[in-house]
């Protein structure tokens, strides 16, 4: 006898959960390897590739789980007050081994401000965006934070060739905008946009923007939080 | 990066005692490696809960880095609860939970103790240094407050909070949260309310909304509290503490059924909080929903395996519920419940063998289980032993006595049960909660299925009476009384309907005779009984009519 009442999305979610934790172990081990064999590995492009791709998969799975919970109506933003410069430097720190390995410069330019946001959700967004910037930048990336028009604006900038015309936009993305035929599904952008939307204050809602330029003349990702 | 200014500053990790708890040796070693390269020196590594707790018992620890998932046995949350509960870790020490989860609520959902921070795997040295550095710096800045909290000198902790607020804008959230909690602890609800209102005036934050509702509940402003919590849950369906508080509020409003529904929803989202399951079990018992109660007690018992909150009462309550379910259900399902009840009791006797009264408590329930399955002989034999054992006790404690009386009723020894209960009532005259339980048992000394049936007839009777159908009301109350003949309120309900009938037909004296029969059943009603005033009023009225 077979049970036809399998909740497939639930099965997927627990499998994803498992894979995500395995990748976490893998990433830890990679970090250790890098420390133990610093001299031989520091410039190894293969090793950097390994770490970058593992990091990317990990981010994708984190986002997948987030989107699953979103669909289950089980995800809400637990907004709290955070000291923004600390928050940004903690997240930059996660990518330091890879950045150093790839020889990419990094900087944080944040005002000394407190911001209101859900740190778990923003962690997912920032990790993914930084990882993305690492892929497309030439020599450097920077994280920015400022207050503008009553919004907290967190930005990730690089000096790469920037976002293609078709991707540049302002506002929020819908699930329909995910294009599974092209190479990039924009899953990360959809997640970022969903996280932005979960942040509300009064009648104002968060959003993301993508454009080119910025201080480094490359891609600029910004998340605006009320 | 600005690594240089850190190196110039005094090494903040050097003086601190670290404890690392992780079941993987590789993780422990790499954590030590990372901590050392951050400047830490005193680092202890352990693999499991027992050595972790032991270490904290005999050593001062400043920072615990504990993995959540430790394989078989206690997990990180169990360790945190035990350390904080037994006060083996002071408030000024940091407990950091290391987890692979990106969302805290998903695994935790426990309401009593929360770690000072979550560190999410994968962790590397740079992250650890940043995060830990910030946390250690925060610990130092807040030390004047946490030190006073450790000394339970709350007024001084409050004044330290107030002093630091203008000086430490970076820790404003922590300070306001703690200030609200401290005011609540010392019972200064109006200042607590002010703290939360001040936060909410700036921004709608869920912790402040929850705190405000908690204060409203403390002020007995149930309606506003319940309304606020409902709105909070609508916005944050994953905010478990709001469910717990809402259930409390609904209970205080007398809406036990709704309260139970809220907790069921919460338990569905987050089934691993022992205290929530226990609360649900107690509520469901009050509501006579014994199926749900059994399930929740079962969970409470399971979750207790590694928890500091484990208690023999959970086992006993589970066995009692299962015994209730098994009664009058001699078929397969009843036998199954009966077998499980006996199994739970034997586990309880083994696990809590140090407790002298555990065997007695167990046999009182066993006796009922056997009787419920029609094994009158084994039941009577057990009862004989029980009697002998209980006679050696000087004063039977209330809960034990109540459960024993229940068994006596079930085995048909009603007079013994009643005399025991009146003895208890005399001894616990100043304890309204115990008196209430005694009254309930005297009113309804039957199984829960019959209780539910009788209560249904009572409701029908009241409805019929209210719509003017007096004959229907009499019939319904009589049906209920056939099940629970000594029920005080029910007898008085019937008298009231009969007297109304007598108003309409003053020649029918048989009505008054029936009334007198009902009154006679309540002759021994003690003065402190909730129905006593109504009883004497109706008795006087009847006397006037029959004189």
From TrEMBL, chain A:
Pfam families in the cross-refs: HATPase_c
Gene3D superfamilies: Histidine kinase-like ATPase, C-terminal domain (3.30.565.10)
Keywords in alphabetical order: Kinase, Phosphoprotein, Transferase
The keyword Membrane is annotated on this UniProt entry: no
TM spans (from-to): none
Any GO MF annotation of the entry: phosphorelay sensor kinase activity
Domain named Histidine kinase: residues: 14-226
InterPro entries on file: HATPase_C_sf, HATPase_dom, His_kinase_dom
The keyword Phosphoprotein is annotated on this UniProt entry: yes
Protein name: Signal transduction histidine kinase
Organism: Marinobacter excellens LAMA 842
């Amino acid at each position: 006898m077979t049970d036809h009442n399998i909740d497939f999305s639930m099965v997927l979610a627990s499998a994803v959960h498992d894979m995500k934790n395995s990748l976490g172990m893998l990433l830890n081990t990679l970090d250790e390897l890098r420390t133990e064999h610093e001299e031989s590995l520091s410039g190894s492009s293969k090793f950097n590739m390994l770490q970058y791709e593992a990091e990317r998969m990990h981010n994708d799975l984190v986002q997948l789980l987030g989107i699953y919970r979103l669909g289950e109506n089980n995800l809400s933003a637990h907004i709290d007050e955070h000291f923004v410069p600390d928050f940004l430097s903690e997240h930059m720190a996660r990518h330091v081994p890879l950045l150093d390995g790839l020889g990419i410069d990094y900087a944080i330019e944040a005002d000394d401000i407190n911001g209101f946001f859900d740190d778990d959700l923003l962690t997912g967004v920032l990790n993914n965006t930084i990882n993305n910037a690492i892929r497309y930048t030439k020599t450097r990336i920077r994280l920015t934070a400022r207050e503008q028009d009553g919004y907290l604006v967190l930005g990730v900038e690089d000096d790469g060739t920037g976002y293609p015309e078709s991707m540049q936009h302002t506002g929020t993305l819908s699930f329909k905008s995910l294009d599974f035929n092209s190479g990039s599904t924009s899953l990360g952008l959809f997640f970022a946009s969903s996280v932005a939307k979960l942040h509300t204050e009064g009648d104002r809602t968060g959003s993301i923007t993508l454009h080119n330029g910025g201080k480094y003349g490359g891609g600029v990702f910004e998340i605006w939080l009320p | 990066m600005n690594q240089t200014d850190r190196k110039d500053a005094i090494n903040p990790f050097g003086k601190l005692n670290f404890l690392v708890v992780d079941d993987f040796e590789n993780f422990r070693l790499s954590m030590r490696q990372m901590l050392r390269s951050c400047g830490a020196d005193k680092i202890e590594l352990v693999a499991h809960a027992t050595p972790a707790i032991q270490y904290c018992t005999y050593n001062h620890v400043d920072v615990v880095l504990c993995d959540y998932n430790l394989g078989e046995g206690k997990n990180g949350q169990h360790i945190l609860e035990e350390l904080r509960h037994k006060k083996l870790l002071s408030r000024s020490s940091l407990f950091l939970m290391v987890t692979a989860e990106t969302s805290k609520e998903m695994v935790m959902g426990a309401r009593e103790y929360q770690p000072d921070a979550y560190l999410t795997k994968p962790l590397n040295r740079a992250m650890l240094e940043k995060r830990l550095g910030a946390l250690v710096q925060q610990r130092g800045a807040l030390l004047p407050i946490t030190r006073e909290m450790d000394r339970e000198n709350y007024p001084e902790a409050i004044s330290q909070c107030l002093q630091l607020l203008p000086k430490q804008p970076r820790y404003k959230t922590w300070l306001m949260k703690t200030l609200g909690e401290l005011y609540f602890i010392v019972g200064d609800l109006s200042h607590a309310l002010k703290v939360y209102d001040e936060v909410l005036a700036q921004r709608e934050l869920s912790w402040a909304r929850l705190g405000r509702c908690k204060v409203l509940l403390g002020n007995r402003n149930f309606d506003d509290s319940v309304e606020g919590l409902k709105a909070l849950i609508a916005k944050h369906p994953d905010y478990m503490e709001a469910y717990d508080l809402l259930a409390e509020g609904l209970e205080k409003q007398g809406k036990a059924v709704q309260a139970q529904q809220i907790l069921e929803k919460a338990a569905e989202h987050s089934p691993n909080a022992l205290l929530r399951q226990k609360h649900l079990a107690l509520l469901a018992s009050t509501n006579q929903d014994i199926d749900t109660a059994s399930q929740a007690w079962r969970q409470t018992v399971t979750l207790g395996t590694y928890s500091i909150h484990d208690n023999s009462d959970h086992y006993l309550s589970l066995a009692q519920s299962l015994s209730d379910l098994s009664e009058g259900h001699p078929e397969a399902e009843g036998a199954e419940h009966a077998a499980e009840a006996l199994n739970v009791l034997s586990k309880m006797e083994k696990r809590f063998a140090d407790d002298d009264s555990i065997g007695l408590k167990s046999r009182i329930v066993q006796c009922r289980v056997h009787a419920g399955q029609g094994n009158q002989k084994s039941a009577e034999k057990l009862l004989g032993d029980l009697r002998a054992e209980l006679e050696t006790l000087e004063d039977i404690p209330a809960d034990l006595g109540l459960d024993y009386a229940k068994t006596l009723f079930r085995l048909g020894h009603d007079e013994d049960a009643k005399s025991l209960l009146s003895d208890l009532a005399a001894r616990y005259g100043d304890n309204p909660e115990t008196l209430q339980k005694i009254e309930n048992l005297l009113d309804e000394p039957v199984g829960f299925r019959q209780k539910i049936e009788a209560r249904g007839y009572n409701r029908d009777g009241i409805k019929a009476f209210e719509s003017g159908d007096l004959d229907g009301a009499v019939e319904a109350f009589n049906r209920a009384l056939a099940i629970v003949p000594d029920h005080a309120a029910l007898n008085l309900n019937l008298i009231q309907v009969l007297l109304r009938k007598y108003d309409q037909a003053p020649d029918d004296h048989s009505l008054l005779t029936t009334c007198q029969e009902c009154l006679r059943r309540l002759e021994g009603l003690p003065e402190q009984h909730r129905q006593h005033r109504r009883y004497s009023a109706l008795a006087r009225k009847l006397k006037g009519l029959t004189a």
